[in-house]
Amino acid sequence: MAGNLQEKENLIQAGLFLLKVNVLLIPFYVISYIKFTVLPLQTGFAALIAFMLKAFNLQVLQADQFLYLGADKYPIDISFDCLGWKSVYSLSVLVIATPGNIKEKLHFLKIWLPVLIAINIFRIISIILLGNALGYQYIEAIHNNIWQIGIIGLVVGVWYLWLKKM
Questions:
Q1: Are 83 and 97 in contact (CB under 8 A)?
Q2: 118 — phi, psi (to 5°)?
């Protein structure tokens, strides 16, 4: 009997978690659906990426949120999604939706969200540097097949750290 009660409690907790996640993800879905952009933020981020790429002696021109690479001026659009907002938002949702003390959650996020942002900058730089080394035609494959999967794994892994901490 006690086992069934515990199973019921676990199912209720899982259901509440999924409900919280889905409610908290509504803004995520809306932002994604309307293709929201903040061009000044994208332009500033593009300037940061261009500055960092120049440290690797890569020929880079920046015009607004666009980077043009190499002698052929291969175009890269620093979209709103390139800012890493999806991984930051997703980790925040997972941590907030998990049962626990809100102060501890905010402290955890205060540490890990800047780490995610730094990793996102590394992600963009590494995609472009690998594209420069291997050929710009590989940028999309590197982005889609390596880094998108890697970032999802990172977010889930950091959330797992939170779960183990609780």
A1: no
A2: -65, -40
DSSP class of 109: H
Q: Where are any strands of DSSP class E within the chain?
A: 60-63, 66-69, 74-77
**Angle subtended at Cα 12 by Cα 11 and Cα 16, rounded to the nearest 5 degrees:** 115
CA 123 – CA 94 distance, rounded (Å): 22
Residue 158 contacts residue 112 (beta carbons within 8 Å) = yes
**pTM: predicted TM-score of the whole model, two decimal places:** 0.90
Domain boundaries, the chain: 2-36+84-165, 37-81
Q: Do 161 and 107 meet the contact criterion of CB atoms below 8 Å apart? A: no
CB environment 95-128: b (16+ within 10 A), e (fewer): bebbeeeeeebeebbeebbeebeebbeebbbebb
pLDDT in tens, 53-96: 999 999 999 999 999 999 899 999 999 999 999 999 999 999 99
